[in-house]
């Protein structure tokens, strides 16, 4: 009987998982279906560029899957019935049965974190977010507050400030800027924000997003014409609702081979999974982890079907690449556990390096 592998999500993790599985399991008794909400690959690492009005290269999934034998279903997954081993989708054929499921639905902006964020803030975490923000920014003037100074917030603030010099851009964070960076990296980042005219406000807790700007936990306010919410990613509730074992954030909990702790026929990869790095710390939500997890999970699924025991996944980090507009950047080199070393690459060299890595990622996904 044909064994049906269904992969949910064609992002960095899902696409590399599906293609990896098709390479490793080229057999007549295996069928692979990839389900994704849109028919093209979304380069999430470029969404701040899209939000700033830069056209992104079209990457149809049909082209990326050519010759693989993988069946593409463009539809939104609405539920997973774990008992019936069926995925429900919002268009025909409405239900897809699976023998093995790879769950790689990624993440979205955590706009549920404070009241008003979902209603009043824009985001840059998904393709639809970025398109909405781009359309909103087309006559950008006045003031913009970017709430959340993780890597996404920094990239969005600098990109938008560079594109719209008439805009007053503020970057607000509850902690300190660049907490995971070296001293040199932090210094460079502060100077770069200055050069871009982005005003930084640290140690500032936001309690609400209102129509007129941010309401702060200390009772203060930061008025703004527009707010971009970049304070963290959250995962969809689908995994929790399906009854898969998840952690407090709804991330699927897995063994060291990325197999669900509750459902052995389910594997997970990318932002959706609670995988852990060498020191036991949660893995960073990034394509730097999503891509190797996807490739790894293909091997893990193949091993499970052929009765072999795969080697446990070992996540290793090398750098954090932060773009600061189109001609500037900061590459923070790291130890394998993601902690920063002193070495950094900055300016145009870093921007070129990040561009090369980003293009290289798509090339790897094409192969
Ligand atoms: C602006 C921005 C900049 C970033 N920069 C970097 C960077 O420089 N370096 C880095 O390493 N990381 C970066 N990241 C993070 C990185 O993009 C994510 O961690 C990565 O995309 C996660 O990969 P994934 O495959 O798990 O999920 P995704 O890439 O999000 O893919 C998930 C896929 O699932 C689909 N999907 C979701 N829900 C459904 C559903 N219900 N039904 C059907 N399909 C669905 C989506 O359409 C998508 O195609 C950035 C993120 C953003 C937003």
TrEMBL record:
Domain FAD/NAD(P)-binding: 4-289
InterPro entries, A to Z: FAD/NAD-bd_sf, FAD/NAD-binding_dom, NADH-Q_oxidoreductase
Molecular function GO terms recorded: NAD(P)H dehydrogenase (quinone) activity
Listed cofactors: FAD
GO biological process, one term: aerobic electron transport chain
Entry keyword set: FAD, Flavoprotein, Oxidoreductase
Pfam families: Pyr_redox_2
Family: Belongs to the NADH dehydrogenase family.
The protein's name: Oxidoreductase
């Amino acid at each position: 009987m044909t064994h049906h592998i269904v992969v949910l999500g064609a992002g960095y993790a899902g696409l590399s998982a599906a293609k990896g599985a098709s390479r490793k399991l080229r057999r007549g008794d295996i069928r692979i279906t990839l389900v994704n909400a849109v028919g093209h690959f979304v380069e999430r690492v470029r969404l701040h560029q899209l939000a700033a009005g830069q056209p992104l290269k079209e990457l149809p999934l049909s082209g990326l899957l050519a010759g693989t034998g993988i069946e593409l279903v463009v539809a939104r997954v609405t539920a997973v019935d774990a008992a019936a081993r069926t995925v429900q989708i919002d268009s025909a054929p409405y239900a897809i049965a699976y023998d093995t499921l790879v769950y790689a639905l990624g993440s979205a902006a955590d706009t549920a974190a404070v009241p008003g964020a979902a209603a009043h803030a824009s985001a840059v975490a998904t393709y639809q977010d970025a398109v909405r923000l781009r359309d909103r920014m087309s006559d950008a003037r006045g003031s913009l507050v970017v709430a959340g100074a993780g890597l996404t917030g920094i990239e969005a603030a600098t990109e938008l400030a560079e594109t719209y010099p008439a805009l007053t851009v503020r970057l607000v964070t509850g902690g300190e800027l660049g907490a995971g960076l070296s001293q040199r990296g932090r210094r460079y980042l502060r100077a770069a924000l200055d050069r871009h005219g982005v005003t930084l406000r640290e140690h500032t807790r936001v309690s609400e997003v209102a129509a007129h700007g941010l309401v702060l936990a200390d009772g203060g306010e930061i008025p703004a014409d527009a707010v971009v919410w970049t304070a963290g990613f959250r995962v969809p509730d689908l995994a929790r609702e399906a009854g898969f074992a998840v952690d407090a954030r709804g991330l699927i909990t897995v063994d060291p081979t990325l197999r669900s702790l509750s459902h052995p026929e389910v594997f997970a990869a990318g932002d959706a999974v609670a995988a852990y790095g060498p020191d036991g710390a949660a893995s960073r939500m990034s394509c730097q982890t999503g891509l190797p997890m996807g490739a790894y999970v293909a091997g893990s699924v193949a091993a499970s079907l052929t009765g072999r025991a795969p080697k446990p996944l070992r996540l290793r980090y090398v750098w954090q690449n932060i773009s600061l507009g189109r001609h500037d950047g900061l590459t923070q080199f790291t130890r394998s556990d993601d902690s920063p070393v002193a070495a950094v690459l900055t300016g145009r060299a870093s921007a070129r390096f990040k561009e090369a890595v980003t293009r290289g990622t798509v090339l790897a996904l094409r192969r």
